[in-house]
TrEMBL record:
Residues 307-337 are annotated as: Disordered. Belongs to the carbon-nitrogen hydrolase superfamily. Nitrilase family. It comes from Plastoroseomonas arctica. It comes from the Bacteria. InterPro entries: C-N_Hydrolase, C-N_Hydrolase_sf, Nitrilase, Nitrilase/CN_hydratase_CS, Nitrilases_CHs. CDD domains: nitrilases_CHs (cd07564). GO terms for molecular function: nitrilase activity. Residues 5-271 form the CN hydrolase domain. NCBIfam families: nitrile_sll0784. SUPFAM superfamilies: Carbon-nitrogen hydrolase. Gene3D superfamilies: Carbon-nitrogen hydrolase. It holds the Pfam family CN_hydrolase. This is Nit6803 family nitriliase.
Length: 337
């Protein structure tokens, strides 16, 4: 009760040429927001190196070169870009939520990174289901990322874009008593209707969860739109859709939303409003009916291979014909019988 957190939501354009240039924009924005007293700074979906807007306006057969360029500029976790953001968060003494295209060997993932104010990476989560055109670009995440983490600003959770249309994903975070929710959308897509949908979605989550929502969307300049989509009739698909906002647990805007251009919204979050809201309606407490309705979450990290240890030291084991016992050689044997 009485605690206040200053939050920043960053609406920003990427550099479509290099990871290094987009990263520089992130580091500069962290410093600018921190200079305004921000203790929590939220960036748009997959801002590093850039959101794959090309996949929304071009057929898959025509996107190979851009897809490969995204691979070449993608972020590895851990890696140099992650280390740079971690250091910036530490210097700013601010919690940072950043969206990245994560490269894991031969696959890309839509990942959200939460850095604590000390610079520690507290969570890396992957979008559980990429949407529509995104499925040509990213793999799927798993339940291990549906976590709320303790940070310097409180209990923080995050979802990306249309994950907010999955009520069970949202409920998984609500059930972990999320206090601040970081939402990330690409922005500069679909048109004004997308911005309207974003507003409805984030305000509803704030009301239902009884938490603050800090939402950041990306921005594209007219020059960038023309570069991504040379055909003028299709460029309208890359305009509008921006709605950077900060919402209270009562579902209201704490500052006017940002729907055009670049900028940083700043608002003070009165954490006492969480209890004020939940006193009336706590979706995972006194308003829940777990004997009737409950959520089952598989929070295990999924892997393509599970290795079972094999005991090579048994006296009954068959030996190599040359008697070699090189531990670096895996010997496959037929099971008994």
């Amino acid at each position: 009760m009485g605690k206040t957190v200053r939050a920043a939501a960053v609406q920003i354009a990427p550099d479509l040429d290099s990871l290094a240039s987009s990263l520089e924009r992130v580091l500069n924005a962290i410093a600018e927001a921190a200079g305004k007293g921000a203790e929590l700074i939220v960036f748009p979906e997959t801002f590093l190196p850039w959101y794959p807007y090309f996949s929304f306006v071009h057929p898959p057969v025509a996107t190979g070169a851009e897809h490969l360029r995204l691979y070449e500029n993608a972020v590895t976790v851990p890696g140099p870009a992650v280390a740079a953001v971690a250091e910036a968060a530490r210097r700013a003494n601010a919690v940072v939520v950043l969206g990245v295209n994560e490269r894991d060997h031969g696959s890309l993932y839509n990942a959200q990174l939460i850095f604590d104010a000390c610079g520690t990476l507290r969570l890396k989560r992957r979008k559980i289901t990429p949407t529509f055109h995104e499925r040509m670009i990213w793999g799927q995440g798993d339940g291990a990322g549906l976590q709320v983490v303790e940070t310097a600003v409180g209990r923080l959770g995050a979802l990306a874009c249309w994950e907010h249309y999955n009520p069970l994903a949202r409920y998984a975070l609500m059930a972990q008593h999320e206090e601040i929710h970081a939402a990330q959308f690409p922005g500069s897509m679909v048109g004004p209707i997308f911005a309207e949908q974003i507003e409805v979605t984030i305000r509803h989550h704030a009301l239902e969860a009884g938490c603050f929502v800090v939402n950041a969307t990306g921005w594209l300049t007219e020059e960038q739109i023309a570069r991504i989509c040379p055909a003028e009739p299709m460029r309208k698909a890359l305009r509008g859709g921006c709605h950077t906002a900060i919402i209270s647990p009562e579902g209201s805007h704490l500052v006017p939303p940002l729907t055009e251009g670049e900028g940083i919204l700043i608002a003070d979050l009165d954490m006492g409003l969480i209890t004020k809201r939940k006193r009336m309606m706590d979706s995972v407490g006194h308003y829940a009916r777990p004997e009737l309705l409950s959520l089952n979450l598989d929070s295990r990290a999924q892997a393509p291979m599970h290795a079972t240890p094999f005991d090579l030291g048994s006296a009954d084991d068959e030996r190599d014909t040359d008697g070699a016992a090189d531990p670096g050689i895996a010997v496959l044997r037929r099971p008994p019988g």
